[in-house]
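Researcher: Here's a chain I'd like modeled. Treat it as a single chain, no partners, no ligands.
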Amino acid sequence: CRTGAQRAVAAARHSLKDYSMTTLTYEEYLDEVTTVLTELYDLDDDAAIKLVVAAQDAEFFVPHDAHEEMRTAEQAKKDAVTLFERKQNRQQTQEKQQQRVRQQKK
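Model: Modeled as a single isolated chain. Structure tokens:
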């Protein structure tokens, strides 16, 4: 979990002009994706971490580990959006499936 100071440091990094193209370590990159999820979608730290860990388990980040040039703040923002949208799509699909099951029981 992040402290307020860690969030402040992450926010300050976002304000640096060249930061978006700076190559990050794999761990920094995952931290950046997590930070972006909390900032863009108002997720708490635990929810953002859970989403990133699930993406790791699904091997979403394998190319990022293999290709250093993919680990930038700019790419982290794109990946955070992708992960969140996939999560939303899964939830909507599950809700529709549950509605169908309820309607079939009537």
